[in-house]
TrEMBL record:
This is Golgi apparatus membrane protein TVP23 homolog. PANTHER family: GOLGI APPARATUS MEMBRANE PROTEIN TVP23 (PTHR13019), GOLGI APPARATUS MEMBRANE PROTEIN TVP23 HOMOLOG B (PTHR13019:SF9). Keywords: Membrane, Transmembrane, Transmembrane helix. GO terms for biological process: protein secretion; vesicle-mediated transport. The keyword Magnesium does not apply. One of its GO terms (cellular component) is Golgi membrane. The chain crosses the membrane at residues 32-51, 58-76, 121-141, 148-167. Its main location: membrane. Belongs to the TVP23 family. It comes from Scomber scombrus (Atlantic mackerel). It is found in: Membrane.
Length: 200
């Protein structure tokens, strides 16, 4: 049985000090985290696209891509999410053997707000790169490169796991996701009704 917990926290993450006087004036306060947030995932895509050009050894390419994907998953889940947008998620097993998914976000009124530039880097990198892996899945199927299918599926799964986790952190629990979907659907129905009743 799985349960979900959603928590707001204003505790410092990764040793950050809550004193705003220590914050740098630059828009990107965590350049290393921002760099490595994109580095591993872009490198995995680049190696996948270029490995057959530079190397005919499938095993070497496969292992390199899997290592890059694993490093990316760990970095995004454990470092860049905390530092760049103040979000974190994880799974823990209690003493009864039950899984608990925990989704946390830094409180919006925290003394240590997130940078808008870092947030853009985080969300663009998080969402755009998995789209490439979706394309790669279809391209391997349609081009009959079945040996690459396991690699691209692994890329898709690892990157979409982080997307799911961080979207859940951002919007709250599952009920909030349902409410967002209902509200969006309601607004669309209202707009359509208004358009039909008001005429062209």
């Amino acid at each position: 049985m799985r349960t979900q917990d959603y928590q707001d926290t204003d505790a410092p993450l990764f040793g950050e000090d809550d004193d705003t006087s220590t914050l740098r004036k630059s828009k990107i306060r965590h350049p290393l985290a921002s760099f490595f947030h994109l580095f591993f995932r872009v490198c995995a895509i680049a190696v996948y696209l270029l490995c057959e050009i530079f190397s005919s050894r499938f095993i070497v390419c496969m292992v390199t891509i899997i290592l890059l994907l694993s490093c990316d998953f760990w970095t995004v889940k454990n470092v860049s999410g905390r530092l760049l947008v103040g979000l974190r998620w994880w799974n823990q097993v209690d003493k009864d053997g039950k899984n608990h998914w925990v989704f946390e976000s830094r409180k919006t009124d925290s003394l240590n707000p997130t940078s808008s530039a870092e947030a853009r880097i985080f969300w663009l990198g998080l969402i755009v790169c998995p789209i490439f892996w979706i394309i790669f899945v279809f391209s391997t199927i349609f081009s009959f490169k079945i040996k690459w299918l396991a690699v691209v599926i692994m890329g898709l799964v690892l990157q979409w796991a982080n997307v799911y986790g961080y979207v859940r952190c951002k919007v709250g629990g599952q009920s909030n996701l349902r409410n967002m979907a209902k509200n969006y659907l309601g607004v669309q129905i209202l707009k359509e009704t208004m358009r039909k009743t008001m005429g062209p």
